[in-house]
Design a protein that fits this description.
The protein has 263 residues and is α/β, with parallel strands linked by helices. The chain contains 12 helices and 9 strands. α1 runs parallel beside α4. The chain starts with a strand and ends in a 9-residue tail after the last helix.
């Protein structure tokens, strides 16, 4: 897609890869824009059934490119902090928030340093697998700023407020084991990219409509009342029952064959 971000396909799985290895994939202005654009494009692609988000080189993403901070001026950046047309997110937030609008699973493969903006980008995914060498931190306090890449919409769904504040106030670095114990990471594995790819391929063989409905169900219900949540469950189920993908899932299981779903 760009020199610093690639989007490739293998069947129904899309691979989004950060490509600034010499910078540990630190996010500069161009990469912020490319991430948002990639999320928007994948959200509109009905043939994509799962997405693997990864980084080239020694780290998944070591955070924001320090040139963005060194060259920042509040008055010059004011426009970038205003919500974009057609979105509730601003320019910087959209690099993460765009992934929350993708209706299929986003699976993040993390290795090396996952700091600041890198951790916030990973939090925009549905699943996060960490390699043994992974080190994670909400690092923004080191630079005298707050984490602001849609983290108020992602992290409170995983951790209680006191744990979030402690991590954000101290900026301390976690290894993969502690990240798992806190609930930041889905699993620690030997090869995060390989595991993420295997999970994505398994998901891609399931009913696409059911997969999308499951994501919507668990993304939306935390903000609903009990009655609204139960109503959404029923509504999503009724949209699946008796439709082509659901019937094919049943037929394939009864006939002991792989299912074939259209897009």
């Amino acid at each position: 897609m760009t020199d610093t971000l690639s989007v490739t396909r293998e069947g129904h799985v899309a691979f989004v890869t950060l490509r600034r290895p010499d910078k540990h994939n630190a996010i500069d202005i161009g990469l912020f824009a490319a991430l948002a654009e990639a999320g928007k494009a994948l959200a509109a692609d009905r043939s994509v059934r799962a997405v693997v988000l990864a980084g080239d080189g020694p780290s998944f993403c070591a955070g924001i490119d320090l040139d963005v901070l060194k060259n920042s001026d509040a008055s010059q950046l004011a426009d970038l902090f205003r919500p974009l047309d057609g979105s509730i997110a601003n320019f910087f937030q959209q690099a993460v928030y765009a992934w929350r609008t993708v209706p299929v699973p986003i699976i993040c493969a993390m290795h090396g340093n996952v700091f600041g903006a890198g951790l916030q980008l990973a939090l925009g995914a549905d699943l996060r697998y960490a390699s043994d060498d992974c080190r994670l931190s909400i690092l923004e306090i080191k630079w005298g700023i707050i984490p602001d890449l849609a983290i108020s919409r992602t992290l409170p769904r995983l951790l209680p407020a006191d744990r979030i504040k402690e991590l954000a106030w101290t900026g301390r670095v976690l290894d993969a084991d502690e990240a798992i114990s806190l609930g930041l990471v889905t699993g620690k594995v030997a090869d995060a990219k390989a595991t993420a790819t295997d999970v994505a391929n398994e998901i891609a063989q399931r009913s696409p409509e059911a997969i999308r409905a499951i994501k919507r169900l668990f993304d939306e219900t935390p903000d609903l009342s009990a009655a609204e949540a139960l109503q959404l469950e029923a509504q999503l189920q009724m949209q699946l029952l008796g439709k082509a993908h659901q019937l094919e899932a049943v037929a394939a299981n009864l006939q002991n064959r792989p299912p074939e779903f259209d897009d």
